Amino acid sequence: MNNSEKKRMNGEAEEENEEDVEDEGRDAWERTYTDERSWEALEEDESGLLQPIDNKAIYHSQYRRRLQSLSATSAASRIQKGLIRFLCVVVDLSKAAGEMDFKPSRMAVIAKHVEAFIREFFDQNPLSQIGLVIIKDGVAQSLTELGGSPEAHIKALMVKLGCAGDSSLQNALELVHDTLHKIPSYGHREVLILYSALSTCDPGDIMETIQKCKKAKLRCSVIGLSAEMFVCKHLCQETGGSYMVALDEGHFKELLLEHAPPPPALAEFAIANLIKMGFPQRAAEGSIAICSCHREAKVGEGYICPRCKARVCELPTECRFCGLTLVSSPHLARSYHHLFPIEPFTEVSARQLELSRVASKTCFSCRESLLTPGAACTKCKQYFCLDCDIYIHESLHNCPGCESRRITPAAASATMS
Amino acid sequence: SFSDDVSLLVVLIDTNPFFWSTSSSSLNFHQFVSHVLVFLDLIVRLSQLNQIVVIATGHNTCDYIYDSSLDTDQVTGEGELPALYSFVLQRLEEFVNKDEKLGAKQEGLSEKRASSLLSGSLSMALCYIQRVFRSGPLHPQPRILCLQGSPDGSEQYVSIMNAIFSAQRSMVPIDCCYVGSHNSAFLQQASYITGGVYVKPQHLEGLYQYLATVFAVDLHSRSFLQLPRPAGVDFRASCFCHKTTIDMGYVCSVCLSIFCKHHDKCSTCGSVFGKAQLDAASDRKRKASES
């Protein structure tokens, strides 16, 4: 038994820094034997020769399981997706965020992954807005206002934010409640708290604040970095959010990115509205106008509000003069794949492929030969390789087989009935 | 090893007979194909490592025509025409016949606005490019060139936008040389969003010149050229109810469908406007049970 194992058994919460371990006489290569047991990753094939693990097969089966569970839940409950989200991300910068169990420190890891999260969030929810809040010295402050442009938030995160003092969950909730109170009724109000501390230092009754948030229809989720806390669990249960505790950096990143796609919009939370929006044309190259955001003369490269003809520099935005929400149709179109999702493909074994009448055993979309299990679309019956299956469902959202078919209106109504 | 000026060019050729037979332009389908063939030959001659893939966009189907990296598509031999030309011409003819046969059962199609299946060939091209990305760290720089003449099919709006965003995420530029009569809003948006080039040649008799000067150069060298800039990209949306282009409309806050007029209910997601959806859903249940 070595020193570090003894420490863990004694219940000491000692961080294992590089220096500490080396002092004990264990080098990195020794640690791979005791901690990582790399020999367990080897496999033998039938003739006893060593063979690396077929990561691809594992990856594919994980992907299929994920896809099945996703389609099962959405079909079962007919959940609609809330697509205009107003999310406040609360980062706990109390003393606990300086802990180094996440290398180099919890704070650095959080900043790095929140940046990736912001980009992914705006990619998936182009009309939504994010606001950043930090908790430091027992007080909550707004780092950035609610806004739709990722750059402003990322810039604010990159500044060296120190961590100090206690964390106060109630102050954060109060601040977030006031911020999100002002948004239009069609928006979904969400809060994501990244909590490092193990306690909360509150000026009043946090249970009251939690009830206030519940009444205001704020969906609060928490990702804890140390251990599970009752108050966080209670908050999430009351408001309908999710509470997870990250085990390590990889797990934290996964949990964080789970909040990027739209959550199933619980039907009672938002009122459906028809929002009047404008789709401005891009101004021609060389046209000169005074832009309404900077009050300067600009050449080309802008958009013209269809209602009042004012020039704006970027989209999405609200026209300063007539108040019309201006978006470009691609902003909305980014979310359309949620409305028209493609069905998961069925798995096809090598045997089934042999038996089928397909002449060339190649993937329909990329023309690679189909070796091991493939996948088939239930509608167009074409065969695809597993890599294309993953790409189609996770990024492209179009089935190439279905798109390469002309369906007449008569045939379409026949299939629907 | 690959230097950064090696291209993988995926060309999507529009063979839609409804466009080519009604087109009043100075270019017919055979002349069009001959300009394109000379251009493909140019790409191959610019660098031994350049790769070309040709996919045909038909009216009823799409298919691969030529892949320079396949053993089965290696063309050699002397003859009146370079071997590449006769190979591609033959494959194109086979494709056009297949496309026609597949449409034999349709009646009552308005010939004027018949679109091609651009979303199909775009999706296939993107899957092929993903396969090239998977093949390893050394691969040519991929891009897509659409040689399109058919008008935009509004029924393909969502699929084409999905393909465009996927191309943007993979950093694959979509170029377009549009030979139809009115500009294609879809392809203008595609080029703008993915960082490609959109050109609508004024003089179609000189199509080869446009192709050679704008689209033959690899991506890395494009920064040294003055490429045509769009005169103004049409970002207007089409309303879900009539498919007409609008510049101001109403958007459902639940599903983001676009309508040109105020409605009480969203036809895509069924949400009743002004009411919390749970109340609306229970109203529907109540009405169903009453009737």
UniProtKB/TrEMBL annotation, chain A:
Belongs to the GTF2H2 family. Residues 1-37 are annotated as: Disordered. It is found in: Nucleus. It comes from Linum tenue. One of its GO terms (biological process) is nucleotide-excision repair. Residues 1-11, 26-37 have a biased composition (Basic and acidic residues). InterPro entries: C1-like_sf, Ssl1-like, TFIIH_C1-like_dom, TFIIH_SSL1/p44, VWF_A, vWFA_dom_sf, Znf_C2H2_type, Znf_RING/FYVE/PHD. Residues 12-25 have a biased composition (Acidic residues). Its main location: nucleus. It comes from the Eukaryota. This is General transcription factor IIH subunit. A zinc finger (C4-type) spans 305-322. GO terms for cellular component: transcription factor TFIIH core complex; transcription factor TFIIH holo complex. It holds the Pfam family C1_4. One of its GO terms (molecular function) is zinc ion binding. Keywords: DNA damage, DNA repair, Metal-binding, Nucleus, Transcription, Transcription regulation, Zinc, Zinc-finger. Residues 377-397 form the C2H2-type domain. PANTHER family: GENERAL TRANSCRIPTION FACTOR IIH SUBUNIT 2, GENERAL TRANSCRIPTION FACTOR IIH SUBUNIT 2-RELATED.
UniProtKB/TrEMBL annotation, chain B:
One of its GO terms (molecular function) is zinc ion binding. One of its GO terms (biological process) is regulation of DNA-templated transcription. Pfam families: Tfb4. Keywords: DNA damage, DNA repair, Metal-binding, Nucleus, Transcription, Transcription regulation, Zinc, Zinc-finger. Its main location: nucleus. Gene3D superfamilies: von Willebrand factor, type A domain. InterPro entries: TFIIH_Tfb4/GTF2H3, vWFA_dom_sf. It is found in: Nucleus. One of its GO terms (cellular component) is transcription factor TFIIH core complex. PANTHER family: GENERAL TRANSCRIPTION FACTOR IIH SUBUNIT 3, TRANSCRIPTION INITIATION FACTOR IIH TFIIH , POLYPEPTIDE 3-RELATED. Belongs to the TFB4 family. Component of the 7-subunit TFIIH core complex composed of XPB, XPD, TFB1/GTF2H1, GTF2H2/P44, TFB4/GTF2H3, TFB2/GTF2H4 and TFB5/GTF2H5, which is active in NER. The core complex associates with the 3-subunit CDK-activating kinase (CAK) module composed of CYCH1/cyclin H1, CDKD and MAT1/At4g30820 to form the 10-subunit holoenzyme (holo-TFIIH) active in transcription. Component of the general transcription and DNA repair factor IIH (TFIIH) core complex, which is involved in general and transcription-coupled nucleotide excision repair (NER) of damaged DNA and, when complexed to CAK, in RNA transcription by RNA polymerase II. In NER, TFIIH acts by opening DNA around the lesion to allow the excision of the damaged oligonucleotide and its replacement by a new DNA fragment. In transcription, TFIIH has an essential role in transcription initiation. This is General transcription and DNA repair factor IIH subunit TFB4. It comes from Linum tenue.
